[in-house]
């Protein structure tokens, strides 16, 4: 999305912003060290599911906000997939207008409390902050975003955006992850009669079934859903579009356009011997049992989970990191990451790798599982792994892992979680044979409009990209909503 610098300039020219810039010199601002967000001690937090970072206090937020130089051309915004007016909300914090800061954020980002916690800011907005060029640590944009959204929620002053008059045109959203929720909010603002259909018994997609409570408390997702409901969005759960009702049936009920946001929830396995042994989970199943079904509170809740003592988690992404930290919290004595490349190639957020290490997670990098070995009852008891070296970069730009012959060895394990990635949910393409999909089964869209090969159907998020990020799913949602609106207006 291109940044509209003229629009930003209007905000920046406000008298109060000018005064703020004059009050403290750029030199003084940039000599202030970045404020570190307080965190709960590793040896305490690795035994419970409460959140790890504690958030900025008001004073810390104001000091950190004062580091921002309110640049005339804020390069940070070019790193944000939804173009948040970053200096705009940060300067509101500096002048202690915290609720106003949240309002600025919400102009372009419907889920700031979520993004402030899970977005990879270090490779997005913060990587583009001017401080990097000065060889200084960037402004803590993510922590400030989280602060503003939390302030609004904790003070019970949650604003909802202005809504256009209801036009009584029905649109359906399939899936309630970040992509679906974004489209729901945008279409409600434009006056549409919006219904979100969700297959599971809770709304939020990966935000509730994947990302654990210690990174993203579910109360935050619920608050965002409540805001959508206050905007008139109808939320329908336990409803599988394509099964509970077909698209044809929904069309007959008056739905004029659809947004497909069914995600990439299908687990991938390595297809190696022994992978079917008992106590080998996909990370999706493992995390869903713990997060959504509250298995860590079994038997108070119905769903159990095996609380392994020696747990190996395969993979190096966020999913693997969430699984291994969950295993530690469930009581594992040895909770290990087994990853075939080295740490510098790991796709997980740097912060999460750092937190995992602090919490006592072992990293067996440059190790690749070859086979699982079971006991007489069919339960996994060992895994055979092979050591790896790194060769030339592959098509992903990362150095290709290469097996070291003769380096195989055995590790004792009683639980394994396979977190090597997921693929697109196959249900919607199966229900719509005329929908064009790629060879990886992602839905084909026009990238400028997010329209699929079926004109009244738009799609975005992981069902289009494969596994990506929350903010990219939301960015897709914004583009799709704009173009769904155009499509409906042109085809009245
Ligand atoms: P999803 O969030 O997957 O939501 C899709 C929803 O559609 C699901 O609720 C599903 O039940 C529903 N659905 C599917 N089919 C149907 C149907 N037929 N009818 C009705 N409903 C249906 N990203 C980050 O930016 N930062 C992170 O730290 C991060 N950590 C992650 C940790 C884990 C464990 C995982 C799995 C992913 C993580 N991601 C992270 C990735 C991010 O969560 C996803 O990219 C994002 O959630 C995709 O959003 P979405 O709306 O496309 O799909
Ligand atoms: Fe502030 Fe950094 Fe953005 Fe400049 S680039 S406006 S200093 S956050």
What would you note in describing this structure?
The chain has 492 residues and is α/β, with parallel strands linked by helices. It has three domains: 5-155, Orthogonal Bundle (Fumarate Reductase Iron-sulfur Protein, Chain B, domain 2); 170-265 and 424-490, FAD/NAD(P)-binding domain (3-Layer(bba) Sandwich); 267-422, 3-Layer(bba) Sandwich (FAD/NAD(P)-binding domain). The protein is 35% helix and 16% strand. The chain contains 19 helices and 16 strands. It has helices at residues 5-12, 15-23, 26-31, 42-45, 58-67, 86-94, 98-108, 112-118, 141-154, 178-189, 206-209, 218-230, 247-252, 283-291, 318-329, 350-358, 427-431, 462-465, 470-490; strands spanning 170-174, 193-197, 234-236, 255-260, 266-267, 280-282, 310-314, 334-339, 362-365, 367-374, 380-393, 399-403, 409-412, 415-418, 422-423, 457-459. The strands form four sheets. It has a five-stranded parallel sheet with strand order 3-2-1-4-16. Strands 6-14-7-8-9 form a five-stranded parallel sheet. Strands 10, 11, 12 and 13 form a four-stranded antiparallel sheet that branches. α10 (178-189) links the parallel β1 (170-174) and β2 (193-197). α6 packs across α9 and α8 (112-118) packs antiparallel against α9 (141-154). The radius of gyration is 23 Å and the shape is globular. It starts with a helix and ends with a helix. The mean pLDDT is 94. Iron/sulfur cluster binds next to α6.
């Amino acid at each position: 999305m291109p940044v509209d610098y003229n629009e930003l300039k209007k905000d920046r020219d406000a008298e109060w912003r000018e005064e703020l810039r004059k009050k403290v010199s750029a030199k003084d601002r940039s000599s202030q060290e970045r404020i570190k967000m307080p965190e709960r001690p590793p040896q305490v937090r690795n035994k419970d599911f409460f959140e790890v970072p504690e958030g900025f206090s008001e004073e810390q937020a104001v000091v950190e906000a004062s580091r921002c130089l309110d640049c005339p051309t804020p390069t940070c915004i070019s790193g944000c997939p939804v173009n948040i007016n970053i200096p705009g909300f940060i300067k509101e914090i500096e002048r202690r207008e915290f609720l106003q800061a949240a309002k600025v954020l919400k102009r372009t980002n419907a889920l700031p409390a979520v993004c402030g916690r899970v977005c990879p800011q270090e490779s997005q907005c913060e990587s583009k902050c001017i401080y990097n060029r000065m060889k200084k640590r960037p402004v803590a944009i993510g922590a400030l975003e989280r602060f503003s959204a939390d302030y609004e929620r904790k003070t019970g002053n949650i604003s909802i955006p202005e809504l256009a008059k209801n036009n009584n045109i029905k649109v359906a959203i399939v899936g309630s992850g970040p992509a679906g929720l974004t489209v729901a909010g945008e279409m409600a603002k434009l006056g549409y009669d919006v219904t979100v259909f969700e297959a599971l018994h809770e709304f939020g997609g990966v935000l509730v079934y994947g990302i654990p409570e210690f990174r993203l408390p579910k109360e935050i997702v619920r608050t965002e859903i409540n805001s959508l409901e206050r905007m008139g969005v109808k939320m329908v759960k336990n409803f599988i579009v394509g099964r509970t009702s077909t698209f044809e049936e929904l069309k007959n009920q008056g739905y004029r356009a659809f947004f497909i946001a069914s995600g990439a929830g299908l687990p991938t396995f390595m297809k190696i011997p022994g992978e079917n042994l008992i106590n080998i989970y996909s990370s999706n199943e493992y995390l869903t049992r713990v997060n959504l079904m509250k298995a860590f509170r079994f038997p108070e809740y119905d769903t159990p989970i095996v609380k392994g003592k020696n747990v190996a988690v395969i993979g190096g992404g966020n999913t693997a990191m969430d699984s291994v930290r969950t295993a530690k919290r469930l009581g594992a004595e040895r909770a290990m990451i087994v990853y075939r490349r080295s740490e510098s190639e790991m796709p997980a957020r740097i912060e999460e790798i750092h937190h995992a290490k602090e919490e006592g997670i072992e990293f067996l990098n440059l190790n690749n599982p070859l086979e699982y070995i079971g006991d007489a009852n069919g339960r996994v008891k060992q895994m055979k792994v092979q050591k790896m070296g790194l060769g030339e970069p592959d098509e992903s730009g990362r150095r290709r892992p290469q097996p070291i012959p003769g380096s195989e060895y055995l590790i004792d394990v009683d639980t394994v979680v396979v977190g090597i990635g997921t693929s697109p949910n196959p249900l919607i393409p199966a229900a719509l044979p005329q929908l064009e999909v790629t060879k990886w089964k992602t839905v084909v869209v026009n990238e400028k409009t997010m329209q699929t090969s079926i004109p009244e159907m738009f799609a975005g998020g992981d069902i289009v990209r494969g596994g990506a990020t929350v903010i990219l799913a939301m960015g897709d949602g914004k583009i799709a909503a704009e173009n769904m609106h155009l499509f409906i207006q042109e085809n009245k």
